[in-house]
Amino acid sequence: MANTDPIPVGVLFSTSGATATIERSQAFATFFAINEINAAGGICGRELLPVHYNPQGISQQYQALAERMIREDKVNVIFGCYMSSTRKAVIPVVEKWRKLLFYPTPYEGFEFSPHVIYTGAAPNQNSAQLADYMTRHFGARVYLIGCDYIYPYESNRIMSDFILEVPGGKKLAERYLPLDATEKDFLPIARDIKAKSPDFVFSTVVGKATRMLYQAYADIGMDAMKTPIASLTTCEAEAAEMGSRIAAGHFTSAPYFQSIQTAENQACLRKFREQYGDEIEPNMCWEAAYFQTHLFAEAMRAAGDDTYDVLLPHILGREHQALQGRVAINPANHHTLLHPRIGRVNHHGQFDIVAESAGVSPDPYLVTHTNETWRQSMMPEPQIG
Ligand code: ACM
């Protein structure tokens, strides 16, 4: 008799804690994809069974719960993690048990685990583009502000290199605040930004603190149209949290925005809202979580099994038609070919896409990247108002 047992898969995203808004969107994108896969007959007649725990944004919990999913719930594959600190906590677990983590979040690069598939942007797919765009349009005197953990430190190091390559490029300050910083903590930073008068601010602030930075920035009278904040993570969800009055004018570099005007994207957004309502704002991490689950299902259909050694060869090199465009898993570094875009928040809290490029192969160690390669792949920019 054919095996009709459900296939347990781990879903390890926080629904409470500092990064709950984005991680909830990643969890629901995963459930949405799993429902579609099951509605279409599952994988070789077997349904996917999501096993979800809430690690509350705490690295040690991610590690303990990954271990529990593998040992008790018998998952071979985990979809999970937003903060790089939490991914780093899960990697030793998936490596020890020979399992696979699908990670749908932009991050700082400079990492490779044979047990991770990285489906968010690497620095050559978001930071390089943002540095180039912002320095050409606003100038290269930059103020760096981030949360106090690995992704901001490393992303600021990379951004500093890109900025200092530009004639006149200057880092005016580099500041860090804890993830649980309050509005009061951001006011002195916002005042310091105003005093130093940069051409733009590069923010690696994530989670709940994002709204507080942008709010403090508006409160002290900084004008986003003249001196915008540029980010790799601030997305539709955070723009909705802070309100479009505060968010409008700021920039984000990401492979996906809701505003991509393809019929497939708009139909998918409608279907998601019909099922889950308006509470979750789809965003770059939502899209990566959605496509990676479908890509996994396609690979498992081809492999007939989800154990690491059988499944992995069917993932590496695999292409998939995602909402952002055609993506592909690079067999050499396990990262994904993605479609860099730059968006500027408009008065509806959505991103006007002001620059976009053809697919860019992942180069997580920035080995082959030059600013010239990125410029050559860019499509002509529309006029921005
Ligand atoms: C991140 O920590 N990779 C956003």
Write the layout of secondary structure elements.
Elements: E1 7-12, H1 20-39, E2 48-53, H2 59-71, E3 77-80, H3 84-97, E4 100-103, E5 116-118, H4 123-137, E6 141-147, H5 150-165, E7 170-177, H6 183-196, E8 200-204, H7 209-219, E9 229-231, H8 236-242, H9 244-247, E10 251-254, H10 263-276, H11 284-303, H12 308-315, E11 319-322, E12 325-329, E13 336-337, E14 341-345, E15 351-356, H13 371-377
Parallel strand pairs: 1-2, 1-3, 3-4, 4-5, 6-7, 6-8, 8-9, 9-10
Antiparallel strand pairs: 10-14, 11-12, 12-13, 14-15
Helix pairs in contact: 1-11, 2-3, 4-5, 6-7, 7-8, 11-12
CATH-assigned homologous superfamily of the largest domain:
Response regulator
End-to-end gap: 64 Å
Rg computed from alpha carbons, rounded to a whole number of angstroms: 20 Å
Order of strands, widest sheet: 7-6-8-9-10-14-15
